[in-house]
């Protein structure tokens, strides 16, 4: 889609992006002094190190937890009332908080975004997106009562039959991949647990939702 | 084991620990100004908010990724050369880094701690430990070549037959749970994917490895 996705004029592959070329941690969260980028003793990577107290500050991926809610052979989707991806459809999902389990976080996000009280049924997928430091953890769930309505971050919520899922209006590559895998599993009559990595194709923009590859797909 | 684990003299249950009673983020990582704890608009939890630039700083759980390496009906364990749990046995595992997938991180940790080059076979378990903000992601893996040796963080590495796993000398509750589940699966002839939460029993110390409960165990 994006013209930036074409590498026709430069046949040499682009180098992979550096893991830590700079850090978001410019000042020490513990003492407030400026940090510097350096490789600590015994380490191999550049880290933000406090110039005063010497603390090393690591940056780790974040877990995004969500639910694939099944009801009457349909799945529950929410249309986003916030950026990014305003107006597009997603599974209820959000960042896991310290102090809760992934299952608790997925239930909480479903309550917040779809006002739906759910029971977690089983883990369904882990989808890592290394480029943006996110790992999606998706659970199958069911409605405890057949009630839902849009929470403050949703324009609307709706149950979609599997043939009617709006694949052209989904918010994130992780949601596309999750729902594709789910459809395949339902059609085969064998719902599995899936692990995979979602890699953006080199040279494509972050807004180009469909320019990704799925790597290391493993299922149980 | 620990006398502190008994609640016989105080029948009322202890309240759960507050999720964020204080923050490790005392200074803004972006501008260096002091933070204050407050509930942002539209939020429900206390967050560290910069008193100068107003940025909200969230604290999220960290992913620990590791491998359960199978070889000749044995599993590969490493004896820790570092604290915590110096001298105790563990699966090769460590914090996931930004820029790598969980499978890549698990392979990297296995190379670092056991000098073992492995192929990831399948996801085996996710074990959340909400109290300490960690989520363990464990993969089954196999040795590409039958070679391993202790890396800088290991005293020794060894293959253990399943009946000889040193359950009394394991380093972490997550490792105990993972290996117990694996043994049960192998004995039943059906190796599954497991999700569960590990909760410390109220009143027990962090060093009391065996005072935990497994909640929400789901398998696929």
From TrEMBL, chains A, B:
The Nudix hydrolase domain, residue ranges: 60-183
UniProt xrefs under CDD domains: NUDIX_Hydrolase
Cited InterPro entries: NUDIX_hydrolase-like_dom_sf (IPR015797), NUDIX_hydrolase_dom (IPR000086), Nudix_N (IPR029401)
Region annotation Disordered: where it falls in the sequence: 1-21
Stretches with biased composition (Low complexity): 1-11
Protein name: Nudix hydrolase domain-containing protein
Species whose genome carries this gene: Oryza meyeriana var. granulata
